[in-house]
Amino acid sequence: MELCVIVAWTMVNFKYLTFIIVLFSALVSCKGFGTNAVSEVSLVETSDTVCFNITPDVRTYNHSFQVFTDTDGREYATFLNRRTAQIFMYDITGGEPVKVVNYHKEGPDGIGVVYSHYMKSWNEFLIPGQNRTIYILDSCARIREKMDFSQVKGVTGFESYADNPFVIKDDILYSYQSSRRGADHCLQDSPTEIALNLKTKEFVHSPNLSSDEIKNYLIGKNVTQSEVGMIYKCLNGKSLVYSFAYNEDLIVMSMDFRDISYKKAVSKYIGQLKIPDYPESMDFDERCRQTCTNPYYGQIVYDPYRKYYYRFAYPRTELENHTESWYDLTQSGRDEFSIIILDEDLNVIGETMFPRDRFRSNLYFVCKDGFYISCNHYKNPGYTDDAFQFVKFEVKGK
Predict the structure, then answer these.
(1) Cβ within 8 Å of residue 47, ≥6 positions away
(2) What are phi and psi of 167, to 5 degrees?
(3) Which region holds residue 144: left if phi is over 0, alpha if psi is between -120 and 50, else beta?
(4) Phi (first) and psi of residue 340, to 5 degrees
(5) Which of 15, 39, 133, 274 would you label with 59, given CA atoms 20 to 30 Å apart?
(6) How far from 131 is each of 122, 125, 359, CA to CA, in Å?
(7) How far is CA 358 from CA 298, 329, 390, in A?
């Protein structure tokens, strides 16, 4: 009798134990165990494209690209062209030009030579100028305001490019700051980000989020950002997320700069990261070659409509027989790259390696319709100087 009871008890508990093991395995396979588990999803090229025709004076080597959404929810592509001193706006769905703002380089409303912009409204354009200034222009290119921060300690400059745009939330402008030494601050104290209140003009500085390895590398070097200190960021609505060139971790910082956390986002195409040596005596072509061949992590993009993050990664690329312009290649964003796909909690759920010489990794946009990447790579057989060309990609499970 006792033996029967023991056998029955064992069988019942074995059934429960088996159930728990199966359930645990299912949860692990569905959700992923740990912060860097990979699921079977990838970015898939679709047949959907959009094309913005441009004049001969506008070069496709343009990084000042932004999606602007008006108060009615309509989306427009906008970019600044310094050659012609113009800001262009296009309907994002049909690719048709909508408006052009002709700004002035000289005179009472002159803003000099500028390279990037941020369209805040139809009548408010923020233009990062030289010497740590920001101009605000109206739709007729008149200067509404000039903000001069050349004497403000800790401010190294302003830029708003496609791969690292201004972020504005509740009239607070967030702008990353390049790590450099200067007369008014030391490298160790240089903030990664500044928050500027556009109404009061008050600043808040973030900590320096660069790794100690990067800080030690840059000490004593007369550089403004250096190839090794590249920083990219995006806004997920409540926090700023940073991708550093030589850091496997993504860094999440609250918008008041008080809370900082880290999340692994490792590419399967990049092995151990090693900071390359960029001596100050290195010539321009060699710098471009190093930038086009060394492995590192690139931009981080948030897709609020589909709740994904996209982190660009650049594996080591062998280009020993390269005979063309290194500059042209840097402007197209290298020969090859991958994109790591992360879910809303920054868990890696897939990674896609892109075909060589077809897409520009430094020109893309996210809109309601999807994630678009430029195919204006100068080695692409379909390359044209007459238009910005984009292809839509979708996240698909295998």
Answers:
(1) none
(2) -120, 125
(3) alpha
(4) -85, 130
(5) 133
(6) 26, 18, 34
(7) 18, 12, 11
What 3-state DSSP class applies to 377? coil
193: CB partners within 8 A, 6+ apart: 174, 175, 176, 177, 205, 206, 209, 233, 240, 253, 257
Q: What is the SS3 assignment for 27?
A: helix
Could you read off the pLDDT of 291-310 as tens digits, one per residue? 889 999 999 999 999 999 99
- Kindly report the backbone phi and psi dihedral angles of residue 352, in degrees, each rounded to the nearest multiple of 5, phi listed first: -125, 125
DSSP annotation of 252 reads: E
Closest CA relative to residue 313, chosen from 348, 346, 341, 338: 338
Q: At a CB cut-off of 8 Å and minimum separation 6, what does 371 contact? A: 43, 301, 303, 306, 310, 364, 392, 393, 394
Rounded to an integer, what distance in angstroms lies between the CA atom of residue 219 and that of residue 149? 24
Number of continuous H segments (helices) and E segments (strands) in the chain:
4, 24
Integer Rg of the chain from CA: 24
- Spatial separation of the C-alpha atoms in residues 229 and 232, rounded to whole Å: 10
Q: Tens digits of per-residue pLDDT, 50-80?
A: 999 998 888 888 888 999 999 999 999 999 9
- As a whole number of angstroms, the longest Cα–Cα distance in the chain is 104
What pLDDT is stored for residue 9 in this prediction?
41
Six-digit token pair at 145? 């305001």
Residue 271 CA, distance from chain mean position = 22
Positions of the chain with pLDDT lower than 70, given as ranges: 1-39, 179-189, 220-227, 322-323, 398
Outline where DSSP puts E strands in 138-238: 143-148, 167-169, 172-176, 193-197, 203-205, 231-235
CB-CB contact of 97 with 90 (8 Å): yes
pTM: 0.86
How do strand 364-367 and strand 348-353 relate by DSSP bridges?
unpaired
